[in-house]
Amino acid sequence: MPREFSRLDRIADQMQRELANLVRNSMKDPRLGMVTINGVRVAKDLGYADVYITLLSVDEVFESSPEVKETLAVLNHAAGFLRSELGRLMMLRVIPRLRFHFDSSVGYGRHMSYLIREAREKDQEDAQSRGDVSEESGTPEE
Fold first, then answer.
1. What tens digit of pLDDT does each residue of 83-128 get?
2. How would you list the strands of the sheet with 48-56, edge to edge?
């Protein structure tokens, strides 16, 4: 039997949706890039909510990138505003304090996909070269 979502999971999901809308529609800071809210993890006592973000960029961004540092600074500075807006939108007695973090798992996944693609291409090239050698020698490939 599948496990049902706990109350904290439901709160985190709703916070993620509401924060995504707030960041997209209510924040007009020009330093803020294309931010994606990847996930929210809420503490059991609702004291804190860790919000994980990524940036949409042409170049690869890392946690130490200046764009990421600036975006995190802007979001952490606006955490009070976002928290008050969440309080208005959500039916909770206590709204957790927001802490923003860069989610490096997306970049890591992109890097792993690149490595897998490279390995597959190399395997195909090796298989083709083995096939070419066996055709020249006249022995059938197994």
1. 999 999 998 889 999 999 998 777 777 778 888 988 888 888 888 8
2. 34-42, 48-56, 97-102
To the question of domain 7-103 being in CATH 3.30.300.20, the answer is yes
Domain regions of the chain by residue span: 7-103, 105-142
How confident is the model over 26-35, as pLDDT tens digits?
888 888 878 8
pTM above 0.90, yes or no: no
CA atoms lying within 13 Å on the CB side of residue 26: 15
Specify whether the backbone of 138 is left (phi greater than 0), alpha (psi in -120 to 50) or beta: left
